[in-house]
Structure formats: C-alpha cells, structure tokens
Design brief:
Oligomer: single chain
Shape: globular
Number of strands: 9
Order of helices and strands: EHEHEHEHEEHEHHEEH
Distance between the termini: 32 Å
Largest sheet: 7 strands, mixed
Radius of gyration: 16 Å
Length: 233
C-alpha cells in the first residue's frame, strides 16, 4: 500500500458515498481508503460496509462508541501502519477538504515528512464560515503557535499527510487529545522529533450537509492542552 486515506465518520451517511467516489477519481492503484466509524446512529457504518463490498479500495474499521476525533484517527493510524501504508492521510468526510487536493498532499510528501493542508498561508482560504467561527479557528492557531514557539500557521487544521516514519516515532499511546488539540499535538510532536513539516495552501469550505462536530468542550480542551504540551514535551 502506498497511501491510506483515513476517513473518520460519525453521522455522515449523506456525505460518505459521494466522498468515497470522489476519492476514487484521484487515488492511485496502490492507495486505499479506511472508513473509521464510531457506531453512527444514522447507519453510516452499515452503508460503509455495503460500499466496501462494492468498492475494492475501501476498508471499514468499526469502533464501539463515539470518543472524539483523536481516538478515531489513532485507531485508523494503527490499522494503516499494520497494513504497510507508506503515507497516511487525514481528511474530513464533509467535503470541507477537497478530495481533489489529496494528490497535492501526497506529492508534497516526496520531500518532507508531514504535509499540512493550510488555510492560513498565502493562497489558502476559508469560505462559508461566520465571523465567530473564523475567529475561533484563526485565533486558536495563533495562540498555539505563540505558546508552542513554532512557525506553523495552521496548527488546528485536519487535512494532513504523514510519512509512516513520523507516526512510528510518535508514542501514539501517549496522545490523549481529541479535537483541535489532537491536531496541534500531532504536529508539535512531529516537530519536536525533528521531522520536516511543510504547509501547502488549501481552500476550506464549510460543510453543506450534516451538522458540525464543533463544541465548547473541544475549544476548551485546546486552551489548556497547548501550554501543557509545551511543559511536557
């Protein structure tokens, strides 16, 4: 396997099939998609199984309950590493990340260790977000960058491509973050390990179907977790 696209889902029934078929248009013959479903009550997991039976490039990992984005991704990373993937990609199922950008991330990983699809570098953008949501996201990235003392401009973004060496070097069992803080922690740990991190611009568009998973708890976790990371790592 060259690349494993980790696709966490919770109540994404309406988005799942369009996303999987869009990814089919851009992936190579040695790439696969791993749907990681946290027992979605809307039947997303059952749909994923039916699609996996039809689409040869799709695998499904069922988890017993919803625990947050971080634990879902960690489970997916372990499965991808065990399967021999050289590149592991994070992407949202709601089309806020354009599947057509996946080849750009994979190509950029040829000469760096961790590629970040960035909204906050020149050429990057955010669309269809209100002022408060923009402020939370941009402010969170600035806060994390200043506290951690790193040059990365989009620390909270969730569109990434890891070379397997990065995830093998990070003690995944020690990662406890779940939301924004998970994205910050993985990138910070990679930097602390000496890996090369590169940001490439992306256009981020707010979901058109389904509800946002953002919550006050996710924001508050990032507020206290960032300084804790600086002290601990």
């Amino acid at each position: 396997m060259r690349a494993c696209i980790c696709l966490p889902t919770y109540n994404e029934r309406e988005n799942l099939e369009p996303m999987l078929r869009a990814l089919a248009e851009v992936l190579g013959p040695d790439d696969r998609v791993l749907v990681i479903d946290d027992s979605s009550p809307d039947g997303t997991g059952e749909l994923a199984d039916r699609l996996a039976a039809e689409l040869a490039y799709v695998d499904v990992l069922h988890r017993p309950r919803k625990e947050g984005l971080g634990p879902a991704y960690l489970a997916g990373f372990r499965r991808a590493l065990d399967a021999g993937a050289e590149l592991i990609v994070e992407i949202d199922c709601d089309f806020s990340h354009d599947p057509a950008d996946v080849p750009r991330l994979l190509a950029a990983a040829a000469d760096t260790d961790l590629v970040l699809g960035s909204r906050y570098v020149p050429g990057g953008s955010v669309e269809n977000w209100g002022l408060i949501r923009r402020a939370i996201s941009a402010g969170g990235s600035i806060y994390a960058r200043l506290v951690l003392g790193v040059p990365v401009r989009d620390l909270t973004g969730g569109f990434k491509c890891f070379r397997r060496a990065v995830l093998e070097a990070i003690p995944l069992e020690q990662v406890r973050s779940k939301g924004y803080a998970f994205q910050i922690e993985l990138t910070y740990r990679a930097l602390r390990q000496g890996f090369r991190v590169r940001e490439i611009p992306i256009r981020f568009v707010d979901r058109a179907v389904g509800g946002s998973k953002m919550s006050r708890a996710i924001v508050l976790e990032a507020v206290w977790k960032v300084p804790a990371l600086r002290v601990r790592l």
